[in-house]
């Protein structure tokens, strides 16, 4: 499984097959009443934002997607049944949202009303034809203001086929996408297996995965507890006060003015090969930390050497399903966020920085217990301005794909994860590990200036990590002259890529 740009997933050409709800399924979905359970804060915020964008005539690109390839001739009926059973299992995929006067309500379709059927869209004669076909379908089919808020299909050829899925972010996250196609492929394999059960368990009435709306209800309860005040919310406030009540941002100036964004461009960098991973991990453990602590420490070293930073301040993503019983394979948006902060004072080498990074990560894990709504309320109570609160932070995500249940299976190993291409002012990093490689993907502003800043930064991070793996440590270098968030070029055409 690899996180990459959609255009980098290049399956073989063939016949495009689309899977849509039957007319009876669509009618049942449209007639489904409002669900009484709450909706998570992240989903509400996303649905509201999508409604505003739609009203302004902007194309919906707030989706996540995945694709993989499977050996053997496609059994179209079996794949349609596999999709039907998969959607029946996962409550959130049977959900569509409406937003009226800023209020978000969910409609959840009964599992027994779910049924999909195949339609042939025609031939995709070359690999180059597949990408625009996917973009067109995803733009049209993934908004979750009607059912389904996702798009699924296949590209069949003799001896094999590709499958793909894209979901509105309100229904999905990166881990969900990594799980989804593997689960569909497993159901499909059972359906076509000689002497198989024909319709694998579980029955649609007894979903296999944890309930998204039970999770949303629990989140609402925990949010209320933290809104009343807690040690964790006070810790959030203390951290933000130390950083001028501002969200974390990329350590170098990307050349955009306040409130300005640019079309996303992708940067991908291989950080460590298999041998480098083993060596880097050994250095981290010898210094009293874990592999992920070394990632934070290495980024802090890069921030020091390139930006003159005296401390590391970032926002990291946590997969909340990992802390819940029965949610390991659930579909939905199960994420939370927490600030990671530590000083570089007193550390002259990477190894000396590991204890501080380790303590900061453990502290962030505790702070991630605060739901997003409560965290933002705490920051506001500390004096942050509305503009500061709604500013998207520069994020760091770390995913170790080795621990996913399908990591040894072909559909998973061949898989690719991608997102819709929107706009950004950040250069957030998704660092991912599999059995062979540690690599980084970043979505940066697509301007010449941002490219000239972000790519060398991530290449320096690679050099830092490979140096540590090769030599067993690294002395932190003095910042280069003129480092830091200096003023960008005055030529706005250069900054914006005009």
UniProtKB/TrEMBL annotation:
Highest taxon, organism lineage: Bacteria
Condensation domain mapped to chain residues: 69-371
Annotated Pfam families: Condensation
Compositional bias ranges of the Low complexity kind: 478-489
GO MF, one example: catalytic activity
InterPro entries reported for this sequence: CAT-like_dom_sf, Condensation_dom
Region (Disordered): 475-498
BP-aspect Gene Ontology terms: lipid biosynthetic process
Protein name: Condensation domain-containing protein
Species the sequence originates in: Gordonia hongkongensis
């Amino acid at each position: 499984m690899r996180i990459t740009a959609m255009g980098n997933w290049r399956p073989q050409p063939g016949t495009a097959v689309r899977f849509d709800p039957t007319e009876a399924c669509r009618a049942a979905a449209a007639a489904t009443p409002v669900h009484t359970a709450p909706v998570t804060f992240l989903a509400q915020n996303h649905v509201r934002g999508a409604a505003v964008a739609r009203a302004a005539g902007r194309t919906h690109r707030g989706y996540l997607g995945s694709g993989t390839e499977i050996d053997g001739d496609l059994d179209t009926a079996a794949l349609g049944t596999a999709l039907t059973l998969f959607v029946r299992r996962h409550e959130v995929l049977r959900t569509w949202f409406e937003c009226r006067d800023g209020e978000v309500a969910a409609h959840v379709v009964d599992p027994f009303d779910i049924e999909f059927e195949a339609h042939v869209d025609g031939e995709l004669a070359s690999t180059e034809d597949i990408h625009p076909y996917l973009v067109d379908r995803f733009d049209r089919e993934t908004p979750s203001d009607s059912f389904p808020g996702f798009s699924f299909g296949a590209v069949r050829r003799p001896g094999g086929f590709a499958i793909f899925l894209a979901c509105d972010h309100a229904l999905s996250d990166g881990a969900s996408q990594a799980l989804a196609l593997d689960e569909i492929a497993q159901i499909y394999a059972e359906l076509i297996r000689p002497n198989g059960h024909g319709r694998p368990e579980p029955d649609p009435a007894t979903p296999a995965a944890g309930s998204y709306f039970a999770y949303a209800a629990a989140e609402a309860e925990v949010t209320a507890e933290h809104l009343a005040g807690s040690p964790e919310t006070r810790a959030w406030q203390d951290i933000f006060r130390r950083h001028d009540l501002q969200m974390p941002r990329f350590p170098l100036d990307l050349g955009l003015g306040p409130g300005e964004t640019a079309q996303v461009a992708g940067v991908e960098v291989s950080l460590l090969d298999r041998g480098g991973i083993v060596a880097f991990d050994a250095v981290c453990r010898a210094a009293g930390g874990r592999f992920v602590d070394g990632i934070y420490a290495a980024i802090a070293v890069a921030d020091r050497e390139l930006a003159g930073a005296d401390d590391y301040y970032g926002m990291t993503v946590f997969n909340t399903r990992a802390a819940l019983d029965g949610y390991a394979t659930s579909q939905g948006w199960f994420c939370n966020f927490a600030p990671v902060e530590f000083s570089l004072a007193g550390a002259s080498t990477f190894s000396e920085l590991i204890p501080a990074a380790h303590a900061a990560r453990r502290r962030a894990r505790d702070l991630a217990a605060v739901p997003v709504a409560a965290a933002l309320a705490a920051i506001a109570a500390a004096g942050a301005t509305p503009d500061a609160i709604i500013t998207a932070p520069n994020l760091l995500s770390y995913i170790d794909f080795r621990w996913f249940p399908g990591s040894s299976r072909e559909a998973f190993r061949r898989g690719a994860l991608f997102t819709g291409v929107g706009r950004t002012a950040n250069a957030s990093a998704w660092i991912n590990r599999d059995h062979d490689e540690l690599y980084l993907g970043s979505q940066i502003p697509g301007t010449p200036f941002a490219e000239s800043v972000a790519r060398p930064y991530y290449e320096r991070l690679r050099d830092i990590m490979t140096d540590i793996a090769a030599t067993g440590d690294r002395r932190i270098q003095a910042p280069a002259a003129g480092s830091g968030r200096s003023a960008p070029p005055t030529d706005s055409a250069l900054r914006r890529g005009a």
